[in-house]
Design a protein that fits this description.
The structure holds two protein chains of two kinds. Chain A is mainly β. An eight-stranded antiparallel beta sheet of chain A has the order 5-6-12-11-17-18-22-21, covered by helices on one side. Chain A has a seven-stranded antiparallel beta sheet with strand order 7-8-23-20-19-15-16. A five-stranded antiparallel beta sheet of chain A has the order 4-1-9-10-13. In chain A, a hairpin with a 7-residue loop joins strand 9 and strand 10. Chain B has one domain. Classes of the chains: A mainly beta, B alpha+beta.
Chain lengths: 341, 106
């Protein structure tokens, strides 16, 4: 009898790639280990391959059979903002943070891990294991990250990462996969899930911490988002290739949206004035209060969006939607920084 | 080998849950290597004791949330333990083993 699989019994493993599209391996055997596990609430990896339909008329309304076109892969995953729990140790989601920010985090032992921006496009291999192991198990290789959305102020703070991947390999196609889809693996069978996954940390309550807007601390902040959008993709127009080409990157756009209670305080009035005059401000969103389990998002040179007033609640809200960060100077790459401390 | 936990919560496989600072756990060397490389903040028991954690420290500050009100001496000791844990991790990342290094002969 065939076996089913429960969607709850799914595990994600993620490994940084030294070379784009090459699954980390030793002599063709994947170096996947329990240490690469990362808890998530959703993981989706998808491959599409369009049919190239001949456009010539046949004298009938029906299609004639086309040929298979290019293979395109995408991925997305959502997880709670779980730091490691020990200050200065990388969180389990470290490879995803490095992939969106463009470089590895810097460890300050016993203190923090700091993720700054860079113009590179690091890639990962993302593994999707389910139970029983006899169902289709998959991995996405050459996975670059083009978008991350951090939710601030909600009960369970979460982040969602997404992007394109070079190819998807799975247990069904492993034996017949071409060399690109094999990603450097030469072992006889698709890797099995590591027996001892290791995961760390607990996300802090998303409504605790400190919100600092232009140097002033606010307790009237409600909820918001930070959107990191780096126009990274894999060009799908290379001649003689069914797969995407090596990553290309465009603009890096970091914006934030938030809603707060409106009031007549001087500090909020000044903030609104800066939105009207286009005076850049610095924003700091700290989530959590416990050492080792705290996130600090630093957004610099933010041009505030014009305040909008929201009358949908009992008390009036003011919202700032689409406020964009900017580098201090060309090449400073300091518009946005994440610190786990 | 006996290790002590320095983080807030770590799950190692299906059976080991670490959620108290200073929590003791018995692991084989491969288990410990896998856990440490996976980000689990562990230090060997000998080092933990050498740093000078008292039983009261571990009992009073078992929850990482309580460390904000811990005295400076505890925070200094905790920092030393985290440095030792990082040294263990770096050793493993270099491909070395957890076993103590042999003293070099003159």
């Amino acid at each position: 009898m065939a076996n089913f699989t429960n969607t709850r019994i799914q595990r994600l493993y993620v490994q940084p790639e030294a070379t784009w599209g090459i699954i980390p391996n030793v002599a063709g055997v994947a170096s996947l280990a329990g240490s690469n596990c990362c808890r998530m609430s959703s993981l989706a990896i998808n491959q599409t391959q369009q049919e190239i339909v001949r456009s010539d008329k046949t004298g009938s309304l029906g299609f004639t059979m086309g040929v298979l076109g290019r293979r395109q892969a995408t991925w997305s995953t959502k997880m709670s903002l779980a730091p490691n729990g020990a200050a200065g140790v990388k969180p389990d989601m470290d490879p995803f943070l490095a992939a969106i920010m463009g470089k590895l985090g810097v460890v300050n032992v016993g203190v923090s891990v700091v993720y700054g921006l860079d113009d590179n496009s690091p890639s990962n291999t993302i593994w999707d294991f389910n139970t029983p192991a006899t169902v289709t198990e998959r991995c996405a290789m050459g996975a670059i990250c083009s978008k991350a959305v951090f939710d601030i102020g909600v009960d369970e703070p979460v982040v969602e990462f997404s992007g394109q991947a070079l190819a998807i390999l799975d247990t069904d196609i492993y034996a017949t996969a071409d060399s690109i889809s094999k990603g450097g693996l030469t072992a006889a069978a698709f890797p099995t899930e590591p027996v001892t996954p290791v995961t760390n940390g607990v996300a802090p309550p998303g409504f605790t911490g400190q919100i600092t807007l232009d140097g002033n601390t606010y307790a009237t902040y409600r909820t918001g988002k930070i959107n990191v959008d780096v126009a990274r993709d894999l060009p799908m127009d290379g001649f003689n290739s069914y797969y995407g080409l090596a990553p290309e990157a465009g603009d890096r756009n970091v914006t934030t949206d938030w809603s707060m209670y409106d009031d007549d305080s001087t500090i909020l009035s000044t903030l609104k004035q800066k939105a009207y005059t286009g005076t850049p401000v610095t924003l700091t969103f700290q989530i959590g209060t416990v050492a080792g389990s705290t996130w600090v998002f630093l957004l610099k040179n933010v041009l505030l969006a014009k305040p909008q007033y929201d009358m949908s609640g009992k008390r009036r809200f003011v919202t700032f939607t689409g406020s964009r960060t900017h580098d201090t100077t060309i090449g400073a790459k300091d518009a946005f920084q994440i610190t786990v401390q | 080998m006996t290790f002590r936990f320095l983080g807030s919560e770590s799950l190692v496989g299906d059976s080991i849950r670490l959620n108290r600072f200073g929590q003791s756990v018995e692991l084989t060397e491969p288990q410990a290597a896998n856990a440490i490389l996976g980000g689990c903040a562990l230090v060997d028991d000998e080092t933990f004791c050498q740093i000078g954690f008292a039983r009261e420290d571990v009992e009073r500050y078992a929850s990482s949330g309580s460390h904000g009100r811990a005295p400076a001496e505890f925070i200094v000791k905790k920092r030393s333990a985290l440095l030792a844990a990082q040294a263990l991790r770096e050793r493993l990342e270099r491909g070395e083993t957890l076993a103590a290094e042999e003293p070099k002969e003159e």
